From TrEMBL, chain A:
<keyword id="KW-0238">DNA-binding</keyword>
<dbReference type="GO" id="GO:0003688">
    <property type="term" value="F:DNA replication origin binding"/>
</dbReference>
<dbReference type="Pfam" id="PF18137">
    <property type="entry name" value="WHD_ORC"/>
</dbReference>
<feature type="domain" description="Origin recognition complex subunit 3 insertion">
    <location>
        <begin position="342"/>
        <end position="564"/>
    </location>
</feature>
<keyword id="KW-0597">Phosphoprotein</keyword>
<comment type="similarity">
    <text>Belongs to the ORC3 family.</text>
</comment>
<feature type="domain" description="Origin recognition complex subunit 3 winged helix C-terminal">
    <location>
        <begin position="577"/>
        <end position="689"/>
    </location>
</feature>
<dbReference type="Pfam" id="PF07034">
    <property type="entry name" value="ORC3_N"/>
</dbReference>
<feature type="domain" description="Origin recognition complex subunit 3 N-terminal">
    <location>
        <begin position="7"/>
        <end position="330"/>
    </location>
</feature>
UniProtKB/TrEMBL annotation, chain B:
<dbReference type="Pfam" id="PF21639">
    <property type="entry name" value="ORC5_lid"/>
</dbReference>
<keyword id="KW-0235">DNA replication</keyword>
<feature type="domain" description="Origin recognition complex subunit 5 C-terminal">
    <location>
        <begin position="281"/>
        <end position="410"/>
    </location>
</feature>
<protein>
    <submittedName>
        <fullName>Origin recognition complex, subunit 5</fullName>
    </submittedName>
</protein>
<dbReference type="InterPro" id="IPR048866">
    <property type="entry name" value="ORC5_lid"/>
</dbReference>
<dbReference type="Pfam" id="PF14630">
    <property type="entry name" value="ORC5_C"/>
</dbReference>
<feature type="domain" description="ORC5 lid">
    <location>
        <begin position="182"/>
        <end position="249"/>
    </location>
</feature>
<dbReference type="GO" id="GO:0003688">
    <property type="term" value="F:DNA replication origin binding"/>
</dbReference>
<dbReference type="GO" id="GO:0006270">
    <property type="term" value="P:DNA replication initiation"/>
</dbReference>
Length: 692, 414
């Protein structure tokens, strides 16, 4: 473990900007990542908790009907309880879910849990073998006392490993007979102990769709013959829809199962919680800028729906940030950051002076102060400390206000500022949100809210602000509560003009009042409620304007924000074809050899053979004559060798050139740019379009 | 009836007991008994025998004990089995016929071809008084080895008739009700289910699940046990519902029992398995699936018509070939190569998409999700072929979520 960290560290330090501070940065990065990792794991467990609880409930109910001896239970065919777990198409995430699920099952239900994957179970015997191995081997590992005994018996077990479920049955009976004496210290109710004596044997099929239906059917048939002796429970992991079960299993088999459906949280909701806990949190100081967020969310929505990959992307950005940005030493908890400011080296101070955000800050200062900042290091350090403090305050206020704005706008018709908070966050990261047209139309819509809605939304905002500890938020909270109180008072104090009307019976008077009313409506005299609503809106608007300015406006924001979206995209969304084409048409990009430098898309004639062949083939049509191609190639290569253009041998094909050419052509064929064609034997067909 | 079952080797009482356990099979049982006499037997389920080694082992184990079974080598062949069998039976010769009963024998045709023929002549091979009994649900003709073999004696067990089923099911009377009442219940149950299900196990299961509902009016004191018509009126709609739900395993038997205790409206909220058909997919996966559907159901020649801007006016009748006159949807999906899929994908998706690795990996995820099917062999890396495996309803629902009017692009609906 320790070795591993050291190894990682040396890898991190290697080629790192500003090697001096790299150790600290590595440590900070490691700490942050550990925090994020544990957070995601806790989150995962919380999300799985509800499914697991209902699953446990289900297995319990099944086993209780099994053990009953009344008429109905005897008459009923004993079905294998089966939980169909709907997980969604984000297959990469399932491993995580199943891991925590099987851990939890082992902890709280039964030590006998085996998970199998389709790719390891091509035939029935493999499936059988895996199930037996996993069930019986886990016991060997878990139980210290039985270890010796099991080591002795295991050769026998392995010798007859092709054995049937009968072996498992015997093993199970032996285990359950032994166990009651095993846990004397723990107090349990008698019902729980009963369960403990007959813990179910859980088999998890991780990816049901990928299983061979025949194998699955046979396996279920066999299991159903042992269900009386072996309390089996199945869990089917399903990525698409439950009707898959009916597609895969005929009625004769599905009638052996007692299938119940369990819906796991959808991946978009999962992502929303992850973003809520990890991104929109001021306690994690590492941040992504708008473009990087956009890339990560884009990969999620357009490509894989995988939360795990999203977190991997976050990890990549984290590593890149600490690796490439020397000033990331300041991206940590406030106390530590303030200390790190005092330790900044001369080159790092210069780096601060070079930061665009800092330059903007300097320009706003008076002339004398500007000079001080650019020349006096100790003064700079003091200012930096203040700026870091401000940055932390900015984050503390930013997220509560963002959430408030989201609560107000997320239920508006046609969602001008997005349905999900991530959409609003992206808008706010990009530029001043209040200058956005959508923001203005959203505010107009908020102005039309009825009183009840308005009050309940403001109430929610109050709840959000209550969670925040910063001074400004507490002030805002007080003001908001006052506003709410006023809203509530309105009920009692509205004087109704209609009531006054009823008192007056005089026709002339009536006409007069009606006219007055009409006039007042035309002049848009606002009712007290409308006044109050406008006041509330103005209050919110002011909060937004003072706290939701984009991070770029904050001096030193570069310390916390990672902004290289191109790097992230390149790593997460690989484009093999474009890289190959780049390598072939511009070899300098990868080889970094000065002799290969060339302008405007031409390939120098000293480039590798395959690049020359590639360049030449771009100039051809759909069919390429191999001999012409060879001649052209030979001419280019001769020029590169510096042969005299007028000499007799110039451009002549010799054996070496011929061989080099053939090698280049077959490499191109391997890469899929050309293929041989039956139409003409001395021609090859191009498989790509365009070129010259 | 017990008169049919008579054998000097067994005492009267035991035969009577067997006869009670096997109602309505007196004829067949009597026949078997007269053929075989007393049995020493090994029962082997062929589903369970994942390898022939297991089959041999089980036979030897039940005839000669576990010592004999351990004499088999690691992956035994048929001749190993015969050798061990001969050796063992010379030590403990048979006093009477030994029987090997193979359940689900039709599965033997999937194993080594010679195994079934060899088993049929096992008596000659091992020179012992041994008989093999094959039990199967399908006709012998369907799994007779095509190399020819020793023909077994066939004994046909006909399906239970309705009255036989009635007789058998009526035996499991609920202890707190009279036999006549229960028999009336079974009669009603069979009236509903006999047309779809003859499986005794399943019928018994259904009888158990619905009996409490049948007794409901009785417990409330509304009707008497003898008032069959009223009871029928009460239970019939309930059984019809059961046929559409719990019988098809749309809802589990546990849920069904809970539903009976709930109020009508609450129970209506519970949706069956096939009601959940909605599948949420990433944006590009949706378009890949749409492209695959178009590629599978449109003839390749018509791609120009749908995806080129200036395709000219081609009327449908002009390029109809004879075989294309039938609806492509009736013929089912056709295979298409990867590059056609991608070409259609790039023309239907509304933004520029870089050909990234994740686009390709989405295609293979669609295959593992069984929304696409790979037609060519896994090993064929060059130009793999696929088929689209989703229904029209499914693809329409997908297309609607991305505002793509798929019907306009389908040749069948032109």
């Amino acid at each position: 473990m320790l070795n591993e960290t050291i190894c990682q560290q040396s890898y991190f330090v290697q080629g790192c900007e500003d090697a001096e501070s790299s150790e600290i940065r590595f440590r900070l990065c490691q700490e942050l990542w550990d925090e994020i990792k544990t957070d995601t794991e806790v989150l995962q467990d919380e999300l799985n908790r509800t499914i697991l609880d209902s699953l446990l409930d289900f297995t319990r109910k099944c086993s209780s009907t099994r053990q009953n001896s009344d008429w109905t239970s005897q008459m009923r065919a004993s079905e294998i309880p089966t939980a169909a777990l709907m997980l969604g198409v984000n297959v990469p995430d399932h491993d995580m879910t199943f891991q925590s699920l099987s851990d939890m099952l082992k902890q709280s239900v039964s030590p006998h849990v085996a998970s199998v994957q389709a790719k390891e179970c091509g035939a029935l015997k493999h499936l059988m073998k895996k199930v037996l191995e996993r069930l019986m081997d886990t016991v060997v590992v878990v139980d210290d006392e039985d270890e010796e005994e099991n080591v002795e018996t295991s050769p026998r077990v392995h010798r007859s490993m092709h054995c049937s479920l009968g072996i498992l049955c015997d093993w199970y009976t032996a285990r359950t007979k032994k166990s009651p004496t095993g846990t004397p210290g723990k107090k349990r109710s008698s019902q729980v102990r009963d369960e403990q004596q007959q813990p179910p044997v859980v088999i998890i099929f991780k990816d049901l769709e990928a299983f061979n239906p025949r194998v699955l059917q046979d396996f279920i048939l066999i299991c159903s013959q042992y269900i009386d002796r072996l309390p089996l429970t199945f869990i089917f992991g399903i990525a698409t829809s439950p009707s898959t079960i009916q597609h895969m299993l005929p009625h004769s088999v599905s009638s052996l199962l007692c299938i119940e459906l369990f819906q796991s949280l959808s991946c978009t909701q999962h992502l929303a919680t992850v973003i809520d806990k990890l991104i929109l949190a001021s306690r994690i100081h590492f941040k992504l800028n708008g473009k990087v967020m956009q890339v990560l969310i884009g990969v999620f929505l357009y490509h894989d729906f995988s939360v795990r990959n999203f977190i991997k992307g976050l990890q990549l950005a984290l590593l890149e940030h600490f690796h490439s940005q020397p000033l990331s030493v300041l991206c940590c908890k406030k106390k530590q950051a303030l200390f790190n400011v005092t330790q900044l080296s001369k080159p790092n101070l210069d780096r601060i002076r070079q930061l665009p955000s800092f330059k903007r800050y300097v320009e706003k200062q008076e002339a004398q102060e500007q000079v001080n900042l650019m020349t006096d290091d100790s003064h700079l350090k003091e200012v930096c400390q203040q700026l870091i403090k401000d940055l932390h305050k900015y984050h503390k206020n930013y997220y509560p206000i963002l959430r408030c704005l989201h609560t107000l706008t997320s239920s508006l018709p046609r969602y001008p500022l997005g349905k999900q908070i991530r959409e609003l966050y992206l808008i706010c990261l990009a530029k001043n949100v209040w200058e956005n047209e959508d923001y203005q139309s959203a505010m107009k819509l908020v102005k039309m809210l009825a009183k009840g809605e308005m009050v309940s939304l403001l109430q929610k905002c109050v709840e959000i602000l209550q969670l925040s500890k910063s001074k400004k938020m507490k002030n805002a909270l007080v003001q908001l509560e006052e506003l709410l109180a006023k809203f509530k008072q309105l009920d009692t104090s509205i004087p109704s003009p209609i009531k006054n009307l009823q008192k007056k019976t005089d026709l002339f008077q009536l006409q007069k009042t009606l006219l007055e009313m009409n006039e007042s409506r035309r002049a848009k005299r606002l009712s007290p409620f409308e006044n109050l609503r406008n006041e509330a809106l103005e209050f919110i608007d002011n909060l937004v304007k003072s706290h939701l300015s984009p991070p770029e406006s904050q001096p030193l924001y570069e310390v916390c924000y990672y902004s290289s979206s191109a790097t992230v995209r390149r790593h997460l969304n690989a484009t093999p074809r474009t890289s190959i084409q780049a390598a072939l048409s511009n070899p300098y990009y990868y080889l970094q050899n000065d002799s290969l430098k060339s302008e405007d898309g031409t390939v120098s004639n000293t480039a590798p053979d395959i690049c020359i062949a590639y360049k030449l083939h771009l100039e051809c049509g759909r069919l390429i004559n191999l001999y012409d191609w060879l001649e052209a190639y030979s001419t280019v290569v001769s020029a590169a060798e510096g042969n005299d253009q007028d000499s007799e041998n110039f451009g002549k094909v010799d054996e070496v050139k011929h061989a080099r050419f053939i090698r280049a052509v077959s490499a191109l064929e391997f890469l899929g740019f050309i293929k041989s064609t039956k139409q003409k034997t001395d021609h090859v067909a191009r498989l790509t379009w365009g070129g010259c | 009836m017990t008169a049919l079952l008579q054998h000097p080797g067994y005492d009267e009482e035991r035969l009577k007991g067997v006869a009670e356990k096997l109602p309505c099979r007196e004829v067949q049982a009597g026949m078997l008994l007269s053929l075989m006499g007393q049995l020493s037997h090994a029962t082997v389920s062929c589903v369970e025998c994942v390898s022939i080694a297991l089959l041999f082992e089980q036979v030897l184990l039940s005839f000669f004990g576990c010592d004999a079974a351990s004499l088999l080598p690691r992956s035994p062949s048929l001749s190993d089995f015969v050798r061990v069998y001969r050796q063992q039976c010379s030590q403990s010769p048979a006093k009477q016929t030994r029987y090997i009963v193979m359940e689900k024998a039709e599965l033997l045709r999937d194993t080594d071809a010679s195994l079934l023929s060899a088993l049929l002549r096992l008596q000659e091979l091992v020179e012992d008084n041994v008989t093999v009994i094959l039990l199967s649900e399908i006709a012998w003709d369907k799994f007779r080895p095509n190399t020819g073999c020793f023909e077994p004696l066939l004994l046909h067990f006909p399906d239970y008739s309705k009255s036989e089923l009635q007789q058998i099911l009526s035996q499991n009377v609920h202890p707190s009700y009279s036999a006549g009442f229960y028999s009336a219940y079974i009669n009603i149950l069979l009236g509903v289910f006999y047309s779809v299900c003859r499986d005794l196990r399943e019928l018994r299961h259904l009888a158990a699940l619905n009996f409490s509902k049948f007794c409901e009016p009785l417990a409330e004191g509304k009707v008497k046990e003898t008032d069959t018509h009223k009871l029928w009126k009460h239970i019939e709609p309930h059984l019809k519902k059961a046929m559409q739900t719990v019988y098809l395993r749309e809802v589990s038997s546990l849920q069904w029992e809970q539903m009976q205790q709930m109020e009508e409206e609450e129970a209506g909220a519970l949706r069956g398995l096939s009601a959940h058909t909605h599948v949420e997919l990433p944006y590009y996966s949706k378009f890949l699936l749409i492209a695959a559907y178009l590629a599978s159901y449109n003839p390749a020649r018509t791609d120009k018509r749908f995806f080129l801007k200036h395709h000219g006016k081609i009327r449908k009748t002009n390029f109809l070939k004879k075989n294309e006159k039938t609806s492509n949807h009736l013929l089912g999906p056709k295979p298409f190569p990867l590059d056609r899929l991608l070409a259609i994908f790039y023309s239907v998706v509304d933004s520029r998409v870089a050909p990234t690795a994740s686009i390709f990996s989405q295609i293979s995820s669609l295959v593992t999700l069984q929304l696409l099917a790979q037609v060519s062999h896994d090993d064929q890396l060059d130009a793999p072929k696929y088929k689209c495996a989703v229904s029209l309803d499914f693809i329409c629902a997908i297309a609607r979520t991305v505002n793509f009017d798929i019907v306009k692009y389908l040749y069948d609906f032109l």
